Amino acid sequence: MTLDAVKCDRCVRKSLDCMFREHRRGRKPGTRLIKPNAKRSLDSPQGPSFPEGMPAEGDTRRPSSPRDERVSDFWAESEGLQPDGLLSHQAMKGKFSLQNILSTNHGSTPDRPVESVSPDDPTRCGIVSHEVALRLFESFMTKLNPFVSQLDPHLHSFTYVRQKSSFLLAAVLTAASKSFEISLYPSLHEHAEKLYMEAFRRGDKSAETVQAIMVLTYWKEPNDTRAWMSVGLAIRMSMDLGWHKLGQDPARQEKLTELQQREIRNDERTWLVLFVYDRSMSLQTGKPWMIERTPFIESAQDWWRHPLAIDNDPFLCAFVTLRLLAAEVFDLSSPGNHYPAPRALAILQNRIEQWQNKWLDVVDPGSCHNFMIRFYGAHQSLQLFSMPLQETLKNQTFNETCDLKPLWISYHSATTMLRLMAEFPSFLSLCQDSVHVMTAYSAVLLIKLLLSSPPMISQEIEPDTIATIRAAANVFTGQTAPLSTSCSLQSRFLNNILMEFATLRRPRPIDRHRSIDRAQGFADTNAPTSNATSFPGSPATAPSHSPIHQTAETHSIPTARPYPQPNPTNPDQAVVQPQSHPPHPQSIQATYFHRPSVPNPDPAYDTPMAGIPPGPNGLPAVSNMCYNNQLDAASNFVFNDEAMWVGSLTKPLSSETTAALQDIWTEDTDWHTTTLTPDLRKIISQTASKIFLGNELSRNKLWLQVTADYTANLMKATEALRRWPQTLRPLISLFLPITRQLRNNLTQARKLVIPVLDERRRSQDAAVREGRVLDRHDDAMQWIEECVNGRPYDPAGMQLALVIVAIVGATDLMTQAVFNLCEMGDVVRALREEIISVFRVEGMTRASLYKLQLMDSFLKESQRMKPLELDNLDGLTTISVSMRRVASDDVYLKDGHKIDKGTRLAVSNCWMWDPTFYEDPETFDAYRFVKLRQVSGREASANLVSVSPEHMAFGLGSHACTGRFFAANQMKIVLCHILLKYEFKLAEGSIPQPRRYGVRAQADPAAKISLRRRREEIFLGDLAD
To answer: Where does the sequence pass through the membrane (predicted)?
Structure first.
């Protein structure tokens, strides 16, 4: 076929003369494709050639000039009859000027050759060396770029960016230096600002220029007020480039090279980021957005599925869909109201929850994307429900019939945002400024809520609110950032609003007992923070130089004065007994476990999970059973007689630890990163399940997951429910997602435990009928069956309760111990030497575990420095408490003080930081209790399992933890395996920060460590007996 017979589809459709060429669209303006010779024979690929533009022999058409081609293109490719479709294409594609519109040259002139590296390049200007620039660039791409999803790591290499745009390179290096090389920041920032001014003066328009402007606004100077205008400039620039007409054309892109496709996706990605930024700025400032919805933007939820998508694309698509969802709030607002109808709000809230669940399953759980999705989802809920809440507060319509849902969701969302600060502290110094704006918004709204809501509400939520804001402020303070950075500004802001709130709220009456009152209060034994009442005449707290405790003023009060009484309207409050009133068994023998009253047996035991009613605290009734007498009896039976059996458990505990570590931490000899707390929770759970449930379920993946989830969810559910009055908790628990998860965990546990128990019962019944010897399983399930002796009970709930007892304290202490070891290389070496020397001689037995004196001392010192239970005095003074109990009868102490029946009691642990008992108590000394074993009178109390008034982390007397012997051996065995089999260190950027759950100060649940397998000096599997 000759070229004369060929006519392209476009010219046939538009009835134009066809000057056939290879497809020209999508190519760089000013370039042409070289046409194949018309007369070249298919059989002779090396046929004669002709000068360009001249006709081949036999071709009767006149030669075509480049101008002819451009004229033909101009008239043939016009789209639509609007100005942007008819006038000069280059004028509508970023070169809008009168000269280009009125140009008689319809095509584009070739671009001038561009020097490979611009003279404005920061390295050529001598601002930074090439090596440092490369390091800063890599830091930006790996640490900062994931927060904004701006650049494609496969496209934007250091060389590519240098050649494309010195402005973008300068912006990237400026942002990176602010976080990683602060000494270079001033000069790089000045250079980037200079290039910004030059780009604006020249009217530069390109994807790189847009990206550079945005990078400078993400991590800008604190006093920079140009963000709104800069984003507007970037949007106008993008529209001038035609991005507002972007549309996906897979067929067209298939014909392009990978580089061309990535550059097209780079434009699309930048436009999507601009859309998110534009909508976010609108939400934060109340100003109108600029970018409207388009089919391309609405299809963004699947844009990340492209074969050339990068790891950050799912995160970007998640944010695009969230901003589209936010727009519906305004679309659904009625003319008379500034917010949608209640039913519409409920639908939108459900969609936000679905959005969050969907995208959390897509992104990497360990990445910053997990934090950002949860944070922005909570922020969206806060903004959504703050609108009806505003009307309620404005009209003062709080009454018995008032809808509390806007208040609850607003309050919950705001506190969630602040608690995420403590959960992900390593991300705070890297995230963009918008995160800090949203954080400030959540804190201010909470203070506004305290000041505007009626006393019946504000009094309930104030302690938790103040503690949450203070905890967030402490996390920002702990970033050790320069004074002018976002973290330091945020820390000062949060502390300032707390001070302002303290001056605005009603002052307390001042009298001669003012200093006494300050040392008194009531401990909310379950709320995240509270006012604690210490007994008169006692040191309420530890010495002032203690690293985590402060001293409150105390005064001697006559012993005839009765104990402070908790507020009868707040059943969560408890009296904190000072150690000036030692909790001897004969003094408080009438006190028992602090537990709610739950019907026994619970009629819900035999009902489907959906029918399980909440207990009086809002948790599933069977969860409250953790404190019931039948659990007391079972745990006492299991643990009080452990001297007879704990020694025989060394081998199964060791073998189960080996299996758990191989599965969770693997045998990988390369460094890899993991989150410590959930890993140790699984390891502790698996080893404990071996003892409690035997072989049937100890390695069942679903059971291990259920126990780990149930433990974590119970903590979270308790924290969530304590924010509400006790009378409302059963109702509120029906709607909280976390309590629904808790009930689902219990359902799963029953489906696993009950069939195993039923099979055991059938087997035993058959043995009785046949006269055979009964099969006896040496595990807690068997022991509890014998203990209850036919009385009704919930076996799954009992097992979960036992696992919680075993998991919570052991996981926390083990986590804190490993965090400590990450910074104590000399102690790690000493512990390994002790393990090897003891086990080589005696093997791994109960007796040899007792001889690991340094390990015993190290664990006890870790427990002393960061106990599991902490509380606040009036939100100002921190104390440690233990032995939370409730008096079942009136109790009279030796000094004449009386504890009334029903009083909830907790005992202060302040002596754990008293220099009278511990030399230099604020310093961590791994050898402290090894040395105390040599001190006359202290040797008996220097063991990990020993209890004494100066170290009551395990309690005291008959109220001491009965499972501490099992826990101590379990932790030592696990730690032996970890020390001999792995090298470990804190992951880069990880700074562990304890997190508060009620009066519990849990070791950082989100902090990461890096580890790798090492060759152990001795094989522990051969030594366990």
So the answer is: none
